[in-house]
Amino acid sequence: MRVSRVQAEENRQAVINVSGRLFREHGFDGIGLKDLMKGAGLTQGAFYKQFASKEDLAAQASKRAMESAAQIWAAAIAENPDDPLGTVLRFYLSMGHREERMDGCPVAALGSDAARQSSTVKASFETGIRAYLDTLATMVSAPQGEETKDKAMAILSTMLGALTLSRVVNDPELAQGFLTAAERQIRETAAR
């Protein structure tokens, strides 16, 4: 049975959305096309009508996941415009975010996997990372001669490192320690 163009596009968008979540949970190489399509409620045969390759899907799903993360940051900031950095730090460096791999930060979930992917997949991450940096740069000030971009890079690096380390350990106290120490260090960095 043929599906309409509208339905085909809805199916394509569903595959991109579901794949972004499943890639974050399993990694790019940890899940096959059959399971990605099954997750979207479609058959594997429909895949090749919608995507050139798994790499094509990985790039599109990564782009969508990064855009979604940027929207989460924007929504959180909009809720508390008086303390945008504190707002981002509270949700990003939280135990809840640590546990939320499928909908959490794509860079923290897939960063090391993305480093081994094609330039197309990396480009999706790079665009999202630049958006993170631009957002963070608006939240910090810099002394004469120092660029806010440098501070934003240090802050993002600290956030990602702390979240990644917190996910690697079993001990919840140690995990929380990484998150708390990172938040304290970021606040000190931002205040300088």
Automatic annotation (TrEMBL):
UniProt DNA-binding region: 32-51
Entries under InterPro entries matching the protein: Homeodomain-like_sf (IPR009057), HTH_TetR (IPR001647), Tet_transcr_reg_TetR-rel_C_sf (IPR036271)
The organism's place on the tree of life at top rank: Bacteria
Record carries keyword Transcription regulation: yes
Pfam families associated with the record: TetR_N
One MF annotation (Gene Ontology) recorded for this entry: DNA binding
Residues annotated as domain HTH tetR-type: 9-69
Keyword Cytoplasm: no
UniProt keyword annotations, A-Z: DNA-binding, Transcription, Transcription regulation
Protein name from the UniProt record: TetR family transcriptional regulator
